[in-house]
Write a structure and sequence with these properties.
The protein is of the alpha/beta class and 179 residues long. It is 45% helix and 18% strand. The protein is built from seven helices and seven strands, in the order βαβαββαβαβααβα. Strands 4-3-2-1-5-6-7 form a seven-stranded parallel beta sheet, sandwiched between helices. α1 (14-29) packs parallel to α2 (42-53). It starts with a strand and ends with a helix. 40% of the residues are buried.
Length: 179
């Protein structure tokens, strides 16, 4: 399965890197392909290293202004013109999406993917990997949106919140065949 992972390129502490590495190893051992932003820095590097070391493939989609940070030994690397093209290519190459911890870029990617799913532009499973409760506030906001009628379909049909990589991967393997 080609699993797109949106996540930070920042260097982060162990409460984020250790679970990210564990998830990456699960992906690689499972024979999955990581589709990611292509960076060889920070948490993106941690996940790419883990997938590759465990035998998985790497498909990167970087963007022209970040190409200098692209991972040199990815199995495939595409350089998009801009962020919009990058997001479209990442989704196109993926069978499923996992959103890990990140900043505004990750949040932008997450909301766009969910908006496209809400409008039926894709039906791929989407998981928010809620490492160390990072997305508790976002989950609360999404629940409020559902409760107050802002979502045209149940939140559970848009996104699955996973506490850890094992739960995330189990959900993806269970639901990806429903495409």
């Amino acid at each position: 399965m080609n699993i797109c992972v949106f996540l930070s390129a920042a260097d982060l502490d162990d409460r984020y890197t250790v679970p990210a590495r564990e998830f990456a190893e699960l992906l690689g051992r499972g024979g999955h392909t990581l589709v990611w932003g292509g960076s060889d820095k920070g948490l993106m590097k941690v996940v790419a290293d883990g997938v590759q070391a465990a035998g998985g493939r790497l498909v990167g989609v970087s963007v022209a202004f970040l190409a200098a940070s692209a991972r040199p030994n990815a199995d495939e690397m595409v350089i998009a013109r801009d962020l919009a093209e990058r997001k479209a290519l990442l989704l196109e190459k993926a069978d499923a999406v996992v959103i890990m911890v990140g900043g505004t870029g990750t949040l932008d990617e997450a909301t766009e993917i969910l908006e496209l799913k809400k409008h039926g532009k894709h039906t791929k499973p989407v998981v928010l990997l809620n490492t160390a409760g990072f997305y508790d506030g976002l989950r609360q906001q999404f629940q409020r949106m559902e409760d107050e009628g802002f979502l045209p379909l149940p939140l559970t049909e848009l996104v699955f919140f996973a506490k850890d990589g094992v739960g995330a991967l189990a959900y993806l393997e269970e639901t990806a065949g429903l495409q």
